[in-house]
Amino acid sequence: MFFSINFFTLFIVAAELTSFALGAPLKDLLSLDLGEPVNDTKILEARAPTHFIHPGVLLGHTQLEFIKSKVKAGQEPWSKSFTALRNSEFAQLNRKVSARANVNCGFYDKPSYGCSQERDDALSAYATSLLWYVTGKKEYAQKAISYMNGWARTIKTHSGHNAGIQTGWAGASWTRAAEIIRYTNAGWAWNDIKAFETMLRNVYFPMVIKGSNYNGNWELVMMEAAQGIAVFLNDRANYDKAMGIFLARVPAYIYLRSDGPYPKVAPDNKLNTRALIEQYWHGQTKFWEDGLAQETCRDFSHLGSGIASISHVAETSRIQGRDLYQGDVGNRLRHALEFHSRYQIDTSNPPAWLCGGRLAKGLGPITEVGYNALAVRLGHEMPHTRTWTKHNRPAYTNWLDLGYETFTHAKGRL
User: Fold this and answer.
1) Which of the residues 132, 168, 270, 291 could staple to 141 if both were Cys, CB 3.0 to 4.6 A apart?
2) Which helix (H) or strand (E) holds 56?
3) Which of 150, 166, 147, 119 is CA-nearest to residue 397?
4) Is 7 exposed, middle or buried (0-12, 13-18, 19+ CB in 10 A)?
């Protein structure tokens, strides 16, 4: 009959009205697709270089020389950053090595045996290696070497709930320092280098390469460490293995609207219902903006660690010959930096659709590497990230694995 209307028609009308009210495309509301597994072969292709560049973890020779020249000329922001680095607790020559055979890190640091000591010693090795390169003072090189030798000849295992992420944090810092010291004639003895290689190969790499389906910042920093270890060991096969895991994690960590109505899912995650996806994304049920991340609704501190690791891996990859900033990784990173910098700066309440209208802020000094690659080098407009980067200068450390990134990666004043 003329006035008969079936249920499907009513559904379409309701969906259209809902779409109009919420501002979400109708195709998203009608889609039954959940988060699709990351399986794009172009995104996942991991290509190790034929020959690794050294030093080549987070910093290469060109960037190190750039930093050195800016400090020598007394230019900003490097001069103040250099002073902050030199005066930091991690750069003091009288600081003691605290190596342990077993580092046991439990959930929320219960227990915590050797955890902060390992992270701090690795950060100290990195700080003193940077000072060695910039100043040419051998005492800094020898201090960095003392940290690496002390741990290489002592540590046997990581244990506890947080063993994976702890190994990632420390491993990421160790390899940055080791690359600088090994390849700048710093006086690191060959047998000590071999001992350090053995430590990375037997203690660190087996732990981090396992990855994790816990919150995404875990696997991201674990793959950051795995990538750095592979560079130091000139291990092309394990470089590709680490990069494959990383390249699958990034699209599952940072959402783009082009992904569809729900985020993508890492290959090993068993998130096969909307309820599981929403739970994994800490209660977020609506995916309406580019740059939203898996830990946005957890807190910006953990989220920032994940973004920082993405920047670090992309930077090392660039040094090694593949510029991830100009592909899917860079696109997601750019949107994540802008999204979270905007809400970090904004003092008003977030919209109700985002994390229920409540955000746990505290982004930290995590934007410098990504901002200078994406905005300064590649020319993307990133005004919110610029503001937050300027706010944090000179960037210090998060006492986990971030260290002095205004000093190492700034390209100029803001």
Assistant:
1) 132
2) strand 56-57
3) 119
4) exposed
| b (16+ CB within 10 A) / e for 403-412 | bbbbbbbbbe
Sole residue written with tokens 């002390």: 150
Tokens of 29: 């509301």
Q: Show Cβ contacts of residue 153 under 8 Å, excluding neighbours closer than 6 positions.
A: 99, 195
Paired residues of 403 in beta bridges: 397
Contact present, 167 and 197 (Cβ < 8 Å): no
Longest dimension (CA), the chain: 93
Q: Is 73 exposed, middle or buried (0-12, 13-18, 19+ CB in 10 A)?
A: exposed
Q: Rounded to an integer, what distance in angstroms lies between the CA atom of residue 401 and that of residue 57?
A: 13
CA distance to 32, 56, 230, 306, per residue, from 312 (Å): 36, 11, 14, 10
Distance CA 248, CA 216 (A): 11
**Burial classification of residue 191, based on how many CB atoms lie within 10 Å of its CB (0-12 exposed, 13-18 middle, 19 or more buried):** exposed
User: How far is CA 312 from its chain centroid?
Assistant: 6
Cα of first residue to Cα of last residue in the chain, in angstroms, is 69
pLDDT score of 15 more than 70:
no
- Taking only the tens place, the pLDDT of each residue in 142-181 is 999 999 999 999 999 999 999 999 999 999 999 999 999 9
Assign residue 364 a region (left: φ > 0; alpha: ψ between -120 and 50; beta: otherwise): left
pLDDT of residue 13: 36
What confidence category does residue 295 fall into, taking pLDDT thresholds of 50, 70 and 90? very high
Look up the pTM and report it. Answer: 0.90
Distance CA 341, CA 414 (A): 15
Q: Would you say how long the chain is, in residues?
A: 414
